[in-house]
Design goal:
Layout lengths: L10 E8 L4 E10 L2 E11 L6 H19 L3 E5 L7 H20 L4 E4 L1 H8 L7 H11 L8 H22 L5 E3 L4 E3 L1
Parallel strand pairs: 1-4, 4-5
Antiparallel strand pairs: 1-2, 2-3, 6-7
Length: 186
């Protein structure tokens, strides 16, 4: 760790991940005290013609490359929502597992946040649309390139972690989201 703002001094680099089997978005944010700054963002793609195993390897290798290049201190991953197609949900869950595994195997602490909480922490409402999220990410992180909708979502996950996860750690609280009440608590 680079010395993190949790103790009040230094810089902390976060990676946010928006998992997907076809496209996994990633976004790197530096946190210095209360200041957030955009570092980089992009998307790891898998070949839709490959087998599931080959596609998961492509996601793994792509995320390893990103982590090795940008050297984040912590990771945050968006939780998967369940959609109507169980096969699609299962495949998304497998891509999400890779997104959790890679930073964990690199020794990074990994936090998870529900989609509605990410939107609420960035936009102010848990039911914001993608355009609203992208607009607020640009406001919060001036100069952000937003290479794709997936990378914008990943930056939103990193922002959420900076706002909630690090603040809760500062206060000695555990980051926990109550799905029923929509509240963060201990």
């Amino acid at each position: 760790m680079i010395g993190g703002p949790v103790g009040g001094a230094g810089r902390l680099r976060l990676i946010g991940l928006d998992p997907g089997l076809r496209n996994t978005g990633w976004g790197i944010v530096d946190v210095d005290g209360n200041r957030l700054s955009w570092v980089a963002d992009g998307t790891v793609h898998s070949d839709g013609e490959g087998t599931l195993a080959e596609r998961l390897v492509q996601l793994h290798d792509g995320l390893m490359t990103v982590i090795e290049a940008w050297k984040p201190d912590e990771a945050a991953v968006e939780e998967t929502f369940v959609n109507k197609n169980p096969t699609s949900t299962l495949k998304l869950g497998q891509a999400r597992a890779v997104s959790l595994l890679v930073p964990a195997r690199c020794g990074l602490p990994v936090a998870e946040y529900p989609t509605n909480l990410v939107k609420k922490s960035v936009v102010g409402t848990g039911h914001a649309d993608k355009a609203q999220v992208q607009m607020m990410v640009k406001q919060i992180l001036p100069g952000a390139k937003l290479n794709s909708a997936d990378s914008a979502d990943a930056l939103a996950v990193a922002i959420c972690h900076a706002h909630l996860g690090l603040t809760n750690r500062r206060w000695g609280a555990e980051t926990r989201f109550d799905r029923w009440s929509g509240r963060i608590g201990r």
